[in-house]
Amino acid sequence: MKALATHRHHPMALLAIILMALIATGGLFAVLSPKDASAEAFSASDVAEGKKLFVSNCATCHGMNGEGRKDGDGNTNGSSLIGVGAAAVDFQVGTGRMPMQESGPQAQRKPVQFTDKQISQLSAYVASLGPGPSIPTEEQLSKEGADVTKGGEIFRINCAMCHSASAAGGALTEGKWAPTLRGVEDKHIYEAMESGPQNMPVFNDNNLSPEDKRDVIAYLNQLEENGSPGGYSLGALGPVTEGLFAWTAILAILLGCAIWLGAKAK
């Protein structure tokens, strides 16, 4: 200790302390930081092939390196993909939303343009640009032990205001909309919660745990299985369509009766 004390005023002492602090901080960050599972699951050849597909099909809008692009007026043509992760690519490309068919308020779902292998390769390349949400595993998508009741509560609190209580979707502002969640793969629902596509907020593990996401998906599956117990759902859009249908049907019946009585009176 006396030997160390004699060197505490050495000109290099402060530099040595700073260097040790940086090494310790870097080591702790490497140990404690979350790993990007998607990047670890892909091979170098997947990343290389994915880059070729990206340059051919996506770089026009998103930039050669996924950095995004703006037009001459400063408007964004394609957002940056750095840090969006493999989940965002698998969702957008796997549902046919990307590549976009035409410019508009938001990307519309359409037939998928790539094979599963190509989607995986594109996901690998974008995941290599920066850490982000990974594609969910079978374990994360397993609904074994899922709490449907809790999933319904979470859905009504966080999702129903846009997607409606029946998950049929609904209109938003400026020509945008919340799509229906019926007929959507479990994987894509999980990825949407993780990546927050279009106008949807991100529900990462700090907001909704993997168990919560599993419960929500189980609830949505049950909604589809139950169908419409009351008969024809009229799009499951609520009392507006139901009232319109009832008013139209009753009015048609009254008009029919009036015409029949008038014809009989003659």
TrEMBL record:
Gene Ontology CC annotation, any one: plasma membrane
PTM characteristics: Binds 2 heme c groups covalently per subunit.
Domain Cytochrome c: 45-224
E.C. number: 7.1.1.8
PROSITE patterns: CYTC
Domain of life: Bacteria
Membrane topology category: Multi-pass membrane protein
Signal peptide: none
Reaction(s) catalysed by this chain's protein: a quinol + 2 Fe(III)-[cytochrome c](out) = a quinone + 2 Fe(II)-[cytochrome c](out) + 2 H(+)(out)
Segments traversing the membrane: 12-32, 244-263
Keywords: Cell membrane, Electron transport, Heme, Iron, Membrane, Metal-binding, Repeat, Respiratory chain, Translocase, Transmembrane, Transmembrane helix, Transport
EC class name: translocase
Subcellular location: Cell membrane
Binding positions (heme c 2): 159, 162-163
An example molecular function term from Gene Ontology annotations: heme binding
Pfam families hit by this protein: Cytochrom_C, Cytochrome_CBB3
Record: residues binding heme c 1: 58, 61-62
Keyword Metal-binding: yes
Known partners and oligomeric status: The cytochrome bc1 complex is composed of a cytochrome b (QcrB), the Rieske iron-sulfur protein (QcrA) and a diheme cytochrome c (QcrC) subunit.
Protein name: Cytochrome bc1 complex cytochrome c subunit
